[in-house]
Design brief:
This protein is about 15% helix and about 30% strand. By secondary structure, it is α+β, with helices and mostly antiparallel strands. GO terms for molecular function: magnesium ion binding; phosphoribosyl-AMP cyclohydrolase activity; phosphoribosyl-ATP diphosphatase activity; zinc ion binding.
C-alpha cells in the first residue's frame, strides 16, 4: 500500500475539516521531533491543500488576505513531517522540521515573546 497522497485523499480531508465561518482553520505548528509548539497560523482550503501536497507549510494571511508560504522571504522554512486534524476536526496540528526561527520577531518560537506567570494547579486540589 502506498503512502502517497492522492487528489481523492486531499478532497476527503477538505470535506472532513471543519473550517470556521470565515473559511479558515487554525493550524498549530509544532517541531516534529521535540514536540515544541512554534506558532499558530491559519489555513484556508487552498493553503491546506498546498501544505499537504507540496511538503512545505502554506498559510492564509488574515491581514493581507492572501496565501503565503513560510520561509519564502526569510529563508526560515517549515518542512512538513506530520499532520492531523483534532477530534472536532476544527484545528490542525502540523509537525514540521523548522529551519531557522519560526517567529517573524527572530525568536525560535512565537511563544517566547510574552511569557505569562499563571497560578499553578495541582492534581490533589
Amino acid at each position: 500500500m502506498s503512502d502517497e497522497l492522492t487528489l481523492e485523499t486531499v478532497n476527503d480531508v477538505l470535506e472532513r475539516a471543519q473550517f470556521a465561518a470565515d473559511g479558515l482553520l487554525p493550524a498549530i505548528i509544532q517541531q516534529w521531533d521535540t514536540k515544541e509548539v512554534l506558532m499558530l497560523g491559519y489555513m484556508n482550503a487552498e493553503a491546506l491543500t498546498r501544505t499537504l501536497t507540496e511538503g512545505r507549510v502554506t498559510f492564509y494571511s488574515r491581514s493581507r488576505q492572501e496565501l503565503w508560504r513560510k520561509g519564502d522571504t526569510s529563508g526560515h522554512r517549515q518542512y512538513v513531517r506530520t499532520a492531523a486534524l483534532d477530534c472536532d476536526r476544527d484545528a490542525l496540528l502540523v509537525g514540521v522540521e523548522q529551519i531557522g526561527p519560526a517567529c517573524h520577531t527572530g525568536t525560535h518560537s512565537c511563544f517566547e515573546v510574552d511569557p505569562l506567570v499563571p497560578r499553578q494547579g495541582f492534581s490533589d486540589e
